[in-house]
């Protein structure tokens, strides 16, 4: 949505120290901030693999937006506001904390 994109752009500028023209931001800063999401470690690893598949130390806006969007989907799943997802596999607690292939498939559908 437009609201999400505006939020992601604001966060991107924050990571870029206020520079709206920054082409990339530090991936480690983003990674560190994700720990505050309340998601299980395995979930965060899978989100990171999908949003940053080349394991780059720098992220552009598309990678940051993908990462934040996936985190939001996972948070919604844990709170019970998400759709059931891939083959009904989303019993949020199990899928998100176990990680692996079921979580990867669920995330890729998002």
UniProtKB/TrEMBL annotation:
SMART domains named among the record's database cross-references: EH
InterPro entries in the record: EF-hand-dom_pair (IPR011992), EH_dom (IPR000261)
Domain called EH: residue spans: 4-72
Top-level taxon of the source organism: Eukaryota
Protein name as catalogued: EH domain-containing protein
Source organism (scientific name): Strombidinopsis acuminata
């Amino acid at each position: 949505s437009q609201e999400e994109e505006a939020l992601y752009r604001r966060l991107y500028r924050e990571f870029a120290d206020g520079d709206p023209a920054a082409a990339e931001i530090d991936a480690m800063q983003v990674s560190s901030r994700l720990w505050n999401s309340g998601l299980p470690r395995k979930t965060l690893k899978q989100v990171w693999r999908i949003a940053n598949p080349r394991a780059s130390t720098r992220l552009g806006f598309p990678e940051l937006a993908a990462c934040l969007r996936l985190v939001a989907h996972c948070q919604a799943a844990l709170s019970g506001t998400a759709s059931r997802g891939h083959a009904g596999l989303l019993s949020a607690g199990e899928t998100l904390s176990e990680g692996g292939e079921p979580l990867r498939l669920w995330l890729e559908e998002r």
